[in-house]
Every structure is written in structure tokens, then in C-alpha cells.
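Continuing from the previous page...

OK, I double-checked the sequence for persulfide dioxygenase against my notes and this is the correct one:
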Amino acid sequence: MASQTTKLLFRQLFEKESSTYTYLLAHVCHPQKPAILIDPVDKTVDRDLSLIKELGLKLIYALNTHVHADHVTGTALIKTKDPEVKSVISKASGAKADVLVQPGDKLYFGDLFLEVRATPGHTQGCITYVTGDGLGQPQPRVAFTGDALLVRGCGRTDFQGGSSSQLHKSVHSQIFTLPKDTLIYPAHDYKGFSVSTVEEEMLYNPRLTKDEETFKNIMESLNLPYPKMMDKAVPANLVCGYQETTSEAC
Ligand SMILES: N[C@@H](CCC(=O)N[C@@H](CSS)C(=O)NCC(=O)O)C(=O)O
Ligand SMILES: [Fe+2]
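Thanks. Re-ran it with the corrected sequence; updated C-alpha cells here:
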């Protein structure tokens, strides 16, 4: 995705215990080089902040796609290290943050922005962040889909207000309607994938190519164990990842 002519710096980062992707975006032609982190993990905050420093970026937003159940978000920890950073999550999540976004809202970094789309179903408050057309280059749009849509998979729907019928509707109405070459960057990968496109998932996603009833049956028969960290992660993530070891910054 990165090229010589683009204004956008993009990095995909990985936390291996929870198989979580964190994304760093920055406007590198802007004097301040404003940057955004999507879905930071507490365990890899130092790595992420070192990279941001090395690249000379100014982090302005730390975003979550939803209240994660399998890891503690890094947003509170980031704010203790840099109080100017603003945490962001959807209003529908019921979580606390500096900025509570709703569908259609835009988060600007320089003249680039991410637009918010509501994609509930894995959790009530799941959102997808989509790059705007301010990139100034003929490059595809990018959708950060959280756990709503994974590469050749999707988020489970058996807790946190999940609903398979809602998830099917969300993906079909909010993600599969994006241009076919839109890049899909999910919050997790368990199969060795890093990226996909809308077209690929519309053709080959083993769950979401199915009609709603078949999808519902697939999701009901997954029988996945609950995430190991769920009891710790969900309460912490409702307050931006605040724990005993971090300050109360939210
Ligand atoms: N093994 C992990 C949890 C795995 C898991 O349940 N992943 C979630 C996303 S994190 S809420 C999921 O939706 N998975 C979908 C799937 O099809 O696997 C752990 O114990 O941490
Ligand atoms: Fe999740």
C-alpha cells in the first residue's frame, strides 16, 4: 500500500499471544506528521510508541474497533505515557473514551481521515474505520474491520451482545458495498493471512458468502471456548484498558 507518491504512511503490527493486528497510519507530508493507532494492545505499547518516535510521528488518536474480549487495549497505557493522545471508541460500545464516535463521523489526521461505519454483530458496538478519499492518489480504499470481518472468517457472535443475523447484515450492507478493490485489514488472524479485499471475501469467505440462515447455523455450531482473558479484558476495555497498573486516564 505504501508508495513514494502517497501522503499516507501505513504499518501493520502484530501481537502474537492474542493474534491481534495493530495498525499505524500517519500523514507524513503534514508538518506535524499526525498519526493514528488502531487497536493497540497493552503488551506491545512500548514497541508501538518506539516506532512512532523513530519515524518522527505525532500520535493524536488511539482507536478501538470494539470492546475486545481477548486482550487488554493499549489505549489507557498510551495515555499515561502521552496524555495528549485521545482515545476513541464507538458510542454504541458503552465504553468510556475521550471521543465516542457514531456512524458517519470522520477522524482527521492532517487532511486525511478515517470514516466510521457501524458493523455490529460480533459485539453491539463494533465499528469499521474506512479511509476517506483524501489520500490524493489512485490507490484503493482501506477498511479496518475489527472482528466484524476477518480474512476468510468473521468474529464470533456468542457473547457481548453478539448476533449472527446482525453481523450478516452489517458485513453485507457496510463492507461488501465498498468498492471491490477496497483492502480489508482485520483485528485478528488465526490462519496466516494479513490482508484481503472486498472482492476476495465476497467470493471466498466460507461464512459470509452464505445466506443469512446458513450463516446463522454456521455461527451457532462453532462451539469455540471463551477467550482466556475475557473476564479481565472486557471490564478493563470498557474503561479504555484501565487496570491497577495504569493511571485512571481514559
Ligand atoms: N484463542 C483466543 C480467542 C479466539 C477467539 O475467540 N477469537 C475471537 C476474536 S477475539 S474476541 C473470534 O471472534 N474468533 C472467531 C473465530 O472464528 O475463531 C483466546 O483465548 O484468546
Ligand atoms: Fe472481539
